[in-house]
Amino acid sequence: MSFLNPLFLFGLLAAAIPIAIHLIRRENPPKIMFGSLRFLKQTTKKLILFQQIQQWLLLLLRAALICLLVFAFARPLFYQGSIAQLLDAEPQSTMLLIDSSLSMQVGDRFEQARQQALQALDTLSAGDEAGVISFAEGTLAVRELTTDLSSLRTFIDNLPDPGYERVRFFPVLRLANDMLTQSRHEQRSIVMISDFQASGMSGIDSDDNDAGWMLAPGVSFSGVNVGDERSSNLSLIDVRAPQQLMASAMNREAGAPGGETEAVDSADAGLLEAQQVLARVRSTGSVLLERGEVALLVNGEPQQRRPFELGDRSETVLELPLALDGSGAYTGELVLAGDTFDLDNRWYFSLDVMPAMRVLVVNGDPSTDWYDDEAHWFVLALEGMENSPFSVTQVTMAEFEATDLDQHDAVVLLNTGAFVGAAQQALERFVTSGGSLLLAPGDRVDATDFNQQLANLTPGRLGSAQTLAANDYLLIADVDRRHPALRPLDVDWSARFQGYWRSEPVDSGEVLMRFDSGDPLLLERAVGEGRTMLVTSPLDLGWSNFPLQGLYLPFVHETLTYMIQPPLQQRAWLVGDMVDLTPAFADGAAQLDVVVPDGTSETVSADNPFYRASMPGFVRTENGLNFAVNIEAEAAELAQVDVTVLHDQILNPETTPSVAAGVRTAQLIAELEQPQRIWWWIVLTVLLLFLLEAWVANRTYR
Q1: pLDDT at residue 206 greater than cutoff 70
Q2: Nearest-5° Cα angle at 87, 83 to 91
Q3: 269: pLDDT confidence band, cut at 50, 70 and 90?
Q4: pLDDT at 420
Q5: What is the DSSP letter of 624?
Q6: Fewer Cβ atoms within 10 A, N terminus or C terminus of the chain?
Q7: Contact status, residue 335 vs residue 292, Cβ threshold 8 Å
Q8: How far does the signal peptide extend, from start to end residue (predicted)?
Q9: How many angstroms separate the CA atoms of 307 and 316, rounded?
Q10: SS (H, E, C) 370-409
Q11: Closest Cα to residue 173, out of 146, 206, 196, 149?
Q12: The pairing of beta strand 410-414 with beta strand 139-146
């Protein structure tokens, strides 16, 4: 026999009360002196013995009444096994999902989540199994389903503090659902403990895989919200800062290197003061914050402060002037003040100011008439705009010296004649060591000499020069719009060409633009560490009207910038991104030391040259490369979604509504207790014994 309410059995101690009363009320007979015992001797001993038996019977009846009442309240049940086995008749599998995203660092939310998870484990019984998943945008830590609940408590106690990632609900729900579908128990449930950021639901709109997704039939879901009903926060949700700038050059007179340097420095300051950083600030949460302040720091030094007031708006855009001292590498930081949650109040960016690009233009057909001069239109395109990033030196073929190459980043040969001897060797060394060469042959070029002398440099071999009739012309028909130099020029080309050189690319050459006849117009080739380009038509007005077209200037700028300037590498990342550090490895290096924002060092191998951005700040490599890591804007938005919204979205309609463990246990007990009704018979017996006790009591003390 088992008892459903065994604590009531302590009431059996009350059976001692009638015994105590009987002992207390027992009277010792008084001694009375009589003159004669003649009448007492006539009293029968049977009557006294009968009264003693009645008193003992009355004592037993009263004690039995108390014991039976205690048994009735304890609810006896005939069941083979213990009550613990009865309560564990339907074991369950439970997955606990603990949010470890950025917003869980607000107040003591994460500690509350930890305690809620431990309390959920306390409700499980022997034979139940559970698992734990810590999550943010993805899965952070996983403990498989197990019946060892004590190990799960240790796992929860040792969970690391929340990081800086945003939260997404559906990836972890999918994982937990897959784990539960492999469980051997029928009762399966998911308990998500989170502050339920509204941004965690964003996957349902942006990811078709999440649209309409539901839990498997039979898997129930419940959410425990540890967030605050009232929350407020100011966030830097977007910052627009330049990653790379080109310094300008205003003194373009040839033969004055010293004067050029001074002019470049003064022009840098004038150019860079005009730059701005745009910052978008938003008030998130349920309580609107009306004012705050944003400070701009450059290389750790305060530069600008801009207070703002939102009023009845939720966000605003601030413009902060950016003043730099010239070419070099800079780090910038925006600091937001005005709220109590500081983790999302900083935004980092890095900026490189490149020196002016030095271009040496070799004019192969100079003329006193500027309209007919071979280099006039090309140099005008480079210098004709304010704050041009190019520093141009123009020489004739007779003035060209091999030493000029060391002072320039690119050489442009406009309709030049033969390059032989030391000049040819110097030009090859210049390109192979990282210089750039742009070739634009015209009517002064001999194809045979060109192909022989520049065979190691040119991307194409020249054939014959073609000159069309007066009313005939070619158009640009095919452009590689994916090429970095041509991607910004994604428009229709209307230039007309009446003369050009037939050509064919060399083995390592690549055609970037073609005429409508199919002949190449622009070719490219990589030579050593440098690159060369060939334009098969002159860049003056001799064979085309190209210099008079609006695309001429951007074509010249984009082409030379692509050839001279190193490819722009991504310098701004978000927490959770995988950063490819391949460009930072030195030749032959097997590993690279990376200093992360908290000052610690990590080693990245060349076999797996990726670093996972885990915290905001600046990441620096041993070779001087640095890049910024910031928090994703949605990670700091404190607006919440109601748990029922998520529940209704993912719960499978075929799932029977979940019943609480206490209710389920009560149902099982009722099913076993109903046909037995032992307590009912005990109560009936108590009533009968009560009547018998009353009759015996009246007979005993009459």
Answers
A1: no
A2: 140
A3: very low
A4: 76
A5: S
A6: C
A7: no
A8: none
A9: 11
A10: CCCCCCHHHHHHHHCCCCCCEEEEEEECCCCCHHHHHHCC
A11: 196
A12: unpaired
Inter-residue long-range contacts of 691-694, CB under 8 Å, 24+ positions, other chains counted: 692/61, 693/58, 693/61, 693/62, 693/65
Residue 413 CB-half CA count within 13 A: 28
Instruction: Please give the torsion angle defined by the CA atoms of residues 665, 670, 676 and 680, in that order, rounded to the nearest 10 degrees.
Output: 110
For 223-240, give the DSSP string: EEE-S-SS-EEEEEEEEE
Rounded-to-integer distance, Cα 402 and Cα 425, Å = 9
- DSSP, collapsed to helix, strand or coil, labels residue 114 as helix
Query: Dihedrals φ, ψ of 149, to 5°?
Result: -70, -30
- CA 527, 533, 538 angle in degrees (round to 5)? 150
pLDDT band at 9, cuts 50/70/90?
A: confident
Structural domains of the chain ordered from first start? 1-29+53-77+659-702 (no CATH), 85-227+640-658 (3.40.50.410), 233-354 (2.60.40.10), 357-564 (3.40.50.880), 572-627 (no CATH)
Beta bridge partners of residue 513, listed in sequence order: 479, 522
Cα dihedral: 681, 684, 685, 690 (round 10): 160
Give just the sign of the alpha carbon dihedral 103, 105, 107, 110: positive
For the beta sheet containing 301-309, the strands, ordered from the edge strand earlier in sequence to the opposite edge, are 244-246, 346-354, 328-337, 291-298, 301-309
- 166-171 mean pLDDT: 93
What is the SS3 assignment for 690? helix
Percentage of the residues of the chain whose pLDDT score is greater than 90: 45
Query: What residues does 414 pair with on adjacent strands?
Result: 363, 440
**pLDDT at residue 41 tops 60:** no
| 123 half-sphere exposure, CB direction, 13 A CA radius | 14
Q: How many residues does the chain have?
A: 702
Three-state DSSP class for residue 160: coil
Q: What is the DSSP letter of 191?
A: E
d(CA 612, CA 633): 18
Written as six digits, the tokens of 482 are 């994916």
Residue 528 clears pLDDT 50, i.e. is over it = yes
The strand pairing partners of 239, in sequence order, are: 279
List the beta bridge partners of residue 573.
629
Tokens of 358: 């030095």
Return the ∠ at Cα 269 (arms to 267 and 274), rounded to 5°.
105
User: Are the CB atoms for 501 and 466 separated by under 8 Å?
Assistant: yes
The one-letter code for the residue type at 283 is: S
Q: Which of 295, 348, 304 is CA-nearest to residue 322?
A: 304
524 pLDDT band, cuts 50/70/90, is very high
Given a cut of 50, whether residue 263 has pLDDT beyond it is no
| First-residue to last-residue Cα distance in the chain | 42
d(CA 439, CA 524): 10
In the 3-class helix/strand/coil scheme, how is 452-506 assigned residue by residue?
HHCCCCCCEEEEEEEECCCCCCECEEEECCCCCCCHHHCCCCCCCECEEEEEEEC
3-state SS track over 251-278: CCCCCCHHHHHHHHHHHHHHHHCCEEEE
537 pLDDT higher than 90: yes
Helix (H, G, I), strand (E, B) or coil at 285: strand
Alpha carbon of 634 to those of 101, 165, 237: distances in Å?
Answer: 11, 9, 8
Prediction pTM value:
0.68
Strands 92-99 and 187-194: parallel
Residue 337, SS3? strand
Q: Residue 79: pLDDT above 80? A: no
Query: Which amino acid appears at position 620 of this protein?
Result: R
pLDDT, residue 272, reads 47
Indicate whether 162 pLDDT > 70.
yes
The single-letter DSSP state of residue 538 is -
Contact assessment for residue 271 and residue 317, using Cβ atoms and an 8 Å cutoff: no
The token duo for 31 is 């001694």
